UniProtKB/TrEMBL annotation:
UniProt key word Ligase: no
Pfam families: CCB3_YggT (PF02325)
InterPro entries assigned: CCB3/YggT (IPR003425)
Phylogenetic classification of the source organism: Bacteria, Pseudomonadati, Pseudomonadota, Betaproteobacteria, Neisseriales
Name of the protein: YggT family protein
Keyword annotations of the record: Membrane, Transmembrane, Transmembrane helix
Ranges annotated as spanning the membrane: 6-26, 66-88, 109-130, 161-181
Length: 193
């Protein structure tokens, strides 16, 4: 019971922090204004980790690679700690264990990216009906525009169905390929025991 609580806390706190790190990367990618309160919050929460990593990891083609690396390292640390607190013994000296952990961490980052996109699409769709001129609308538009644009023609009776289509695609991706990959990577870990 105590181990499950510890694992839950590790996954929740680590997952939220890696989500904020990913949000920093995507806000920079979408060229969100630095003066916006959301951007200020994300920067304040992540500066201590990202600014240190930036000294070691330069930007790659203008992308904030330090934020991505920090998110990966946090996810890898959480996966390792959860595995270490598991009742099954895992051989951390075996390279196959680390390969499985790295692959699971990359998969988790991709899953979190999909969740961020789904959340942004849902909030944007709700705000378009309730408060279309909200201050966060331009940021959400910049984050979701590349994904909604191919489906903008799906307009029925003046209602834009592109958010629904994108959410359905995200759900299918999470249900099929991500679960299959997760099972393969978990098998990789179990083979290293």
């Amino acid at each position: 019971m105590l181990l499950q609580t510890l694992q839950f806390l590790l996954q929740t706190v680590g997952g939220l922090f890696s989500l904020v790190l990913l949000m920093r990367f995507y806000l920079q990618l979408a060229r969100a204004p630095h003066r916006h309160p959301l951007t200020q919050f994300v920067m304040a929460m992540t500066n201590f980790a990202v600014l240190r990593l930036r000294r070691l990891v330069p930007a790659w083609h203008g992308y904030d690679s330090a934020s991505l690396l920090a998110a990966f390292l946090v996810t890898l640390a959480v996966s390792t700690l959860v595995l270490a607190t598991n009742l099954l013994p895992y051989d951390f000296a075996h390279p196959q264990t680390w390969l499985g952990l790295c692959l699971l961490s990359l998969l988790e980052l991709f899953r979190q990216s999909l969740n961020l996109l789904a959340g942004a699409v849902i909030v944007q769709a709700i705000l378009s009906w309730v408060s279309p001129y909200n201050a966060i609308t331009p940021i959400l538009d910049a984050l979701t525009r590349p994904y909604l644009k191919p489906f903008r023609a799906a307009n029925v009776g003046g209602v834009d169905l592109s958010p629904l289509i994108v959410i359905l695609i995200i759900q299918v991706i999470q249900m099929l390929p991500l679960r299959v990959l997760e099972q393969l990577f978990l098998m990789q870990l179990k083979m290293a025991v």
